[in-house]
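Pasting as-is:
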Amino acid sequence: LVVAESIRKELTSRGFTNLVPWSRGVDIAAFKPSPRENNGDARPIWLYAGRLAIEKNIKAFLDLDLPGTKWVVGGGPQMKELQRRYKDVRFFGPATTEELARRYSQSDCFVFPSKTDTFGLVMVEALASGVPVAAYPVQAPLEIVGEAAVGALDEDLRSACLNALAVPGEDCRAFALTRSWRACAEQFLVNIAMSGEDAVR
């Protein structure tokens, strides 16, 4: 069972066989769209959520010249350094699921600057909240956003951010429903049934 096509290709190149997809699921009840509030921050609101560590490439997002307000949710070894350096960014620190869901639903675009993640569940959580994704055209975003028209991928991350704003939130939500825990469980059961049929043959 492999979570991503890129992993399937790598394992195939190493001689593994009988590889089938099993995507990760997202809690579509916890992460969902909600009415936008007037929180005093200029829009658009650009959100990053995740660990604040060097491998996440978060400075690539924070250094962008973008209109509106940048939000950062999460903690990690880079947090204090980033807070000192980026005074105009709102840092919320680690969040509960409920608080994180609220931050997603109140943002206009989710920015995923990492170039090394293999999946990036936070992107699916954002999409479930009706929020488009902006990212580089690398492994994890290609696996999730790809050609699904629920975000924008570009080597120029600023362009990706601005283009993502045009994506309708309902399209993002509809896509995320195909990654629900129910859909994930059904995919697993189909794989089990198929393996049983192969064993009979």
